[in-house]
Amino acid sequence: MIIGRKEEIAKLKKAYNSDHSEFVAVYGRRRIGKTYLIRETFEGKFTFQYSGIFKVSNQEQLEVFYKSLLEQGLDPTEKPPKSWFDAFFLLEHLIKKSDEQRKVIFIDELPWMDARNSRFIPAFEHFWNGWASARKDILLIICGSATSWIINKIFRNKGGLYNRVTFRIKLQQFSLNECEELVNYLKLPLNRNMIVEGYMVMGGVPYYWAKLEARMSMVKNINNLFLKEDGELRSEFDYIYSSMFNSPDKYIAVVEALSDKKSGLTRDEIITKGKLESNGQLSRVLEDLIECGFIRKYCHTDKLLKDALYQLIDCYTLFYYQFVKKSHGIDEEYWVRSMKTPTYSTWCGLAFERVCLLHTRQIKSAIGISGISASLFSWHVKKNHEHPGAQIDLIIDRADNVINICEIKYAPAGYRLTDSELKKIHNRLSIFNLYIPRNKVAQPILITSNGVIENNNSFEIPIQVTADQLFFP
């Protein structure tokens, strides 16, 4: 069963039904389900499939590739390849033998095949440009864990692979709606509160959700998987970044610098805090992290592009820096005890904001502005002689000249809008009004995890969104 992925499946089928040879690249962060999507869509029916091996020599990689060719029908009299040019020439021989109308070639973990000095890229270019693309019956599908490699070596290739990919399929995280569908499919006894709590830790990464055990609560699952010394996903952070990025240190330095900054940092602030050099390599690191969905870049309405902020939006990475990295010798009650600490309360606020940022389409739908173009960002201003400064969780700057000021509150038992909290919201609104054009009007919205508890103030902000509405498809 494939949950969600309707657009991606439609693209794969369109490529399959094409009258020409097609080159498809499926990419996205680690554990997102790229391989599963391809295998399930084609029901494992490939003319040839191969998965690269992590950190082996080029000779070993060639040997395994050759054995895979033999297992899938290559004439055993063909000699083992001495180079990747030889290897792809043998692949051509295998494809020519096939009587299938559409030859589907699936190469998984392609980046791991590109060992130092292997000349893999020129050989791969020659295979596609010099042979496969000239035919009309080839469907070549590639994907891999090292997403930055695919982005830089395939999409940004300035040589023979420039603009050769005919279908780019970026696999996003599951939404809350899709996580709920997966939870129901796995028969996990979790309600929406628990699913939101799980999303705050794991995001919408299907692999993590599939590891949850029905006999345990969400709290127990999180503790056992991520926090216990022998937890199956205890070392997940290092695995993600080392497998996705060839030189992960700079990527880790960036996300670590952003991990405790609610609204994000400018490029210069990242350089200072992360002790990084300002050069083209840092620009590439930031671009890769954005492309992989770990961070986002945004500008305030009154700021220039050079003042743009970078904000960490990956739920798991935030959870790692708040809890996993700081934990040692964890027992079975660690996560329960953490829930009584100020650190946990602070993290809940940050994490629920990230969940909302990943569901802005659902928020727009909930307030009835799905069809209106809008820019979305966080906003803050330092204090001056006019005001004490302000920070706003989420701004929806709409094309119809309305700016929604979103107050995001995580409160599992319901949010109580007290007199002091209402005053803070009105103060932030009045400060924000000092910075917007006169033709625009600011309008507050309250986004809560479990609704607003009825009192004298509960209807003072009439536009309200709850976590239930974040579960919209």
Lay out the secondary structure.
Blueprint: H1 6-16, E1 22-27, H2 34-41, E2 48-51, H3 58-71, H4 84-97, E3 103-108, H5 120-130, E4 138-143, H6 147-155, E5 167-170, H7 176-185, H8 192-202, H9 206-210, H10 218-227, H11 236-244, H12 248-258, E6 265-266, H13 267-274, H14 280-291, E7 295-298, E8 309-312, H15 315-324, H16 334-338, H17 342-357, H18 360-366, E9 374-381, E10 390-398, E11 402-409, H19 419-433, E12 441-448, E13 464-466, H20 467-470
Helix pairs in contact: 3-4, 4-5, 7-8, 8-15, 8-17, 12-13, 15-17
Please give a structural write-up:
The chain has 473 residues and is α/β, with parallel strands linked by helices. The chain has 20 helices and 13 strands. The strands form three sheets. A five-stranded parallel sheet has the order 2-3-4-1-5, sandwiched between helices. It has a five-stranded mixed sheet with strand order 9-10-11-12-13. A three-stranded antiparallel sheet has the order 6-8-7. Helix 15 (315-324) runs antiparallel to helix 17 (342-357). The relative contact order is 0.09. The mean pLDDT is 92.
Quick recap of the structure?
The chain is of the alpha/beta class and 473 residues long.
Structural class: alpha/beta
CATH level-1 class of the largest domain: Mainly Alpha
Total separate domains? 3
Largest sheet: 5 strands, parallel
Residue stretches low in confidence (pLDDT < 50, at least 5 long) are none
Terminal Cα span: 18 Å
For the record, the CATH architecture of the largest domain stands as Orthogonal Bundle
Number of strands: 13
Going across the major beta sheet, what is the strand order? 2-3-4-1-5
